Amino acid sequence: MGSIPNLPPQQSISKKQINPNMNLQTNKKLRRRLLLALAFILPMVISIQISIYRQEQMIQEKQITLNKEKKRLSELEITGRYFENDIKTLTASDEGILKFARKLYGFSRPDETIFQITE
């Protein structure tokens, strides 16, 4: 068997000196792979962001609608309470009916005289 002589580091031939094109080829392959990966990932990320933005807008619109409907519901509940009170006073006695008529229509009792003042 032959022996391989040990050369000092200055005289040893590095792999870069033997095949410098191989390093360039691997760099080109890596660049291509990265560019292809970006070319596929970037449109997906953009489309996902667009869909999330649209969903967020829809949620905000529905939230506004929900708040309006809650406000309307509370107003209707208050109106319903007034109607319930009016129903109680009207069904309780004839005096309740007379008070209601005086309040809304300006009716008077038999012994009263109502003077209407116009401004």
TrEMBL record:
Pfam families linked: DivIC
Listed GO biological process terms: cell division
Coiled-coil region list: none
Keywords: Cell cycle, Cell division, Membrane, Transmembrane, Transmembrane helix
Residue spans crossing the bilayer: 34-53
Name this polypeptide is given: Cell division protein DivIVC
Organism: Bacillus cereus
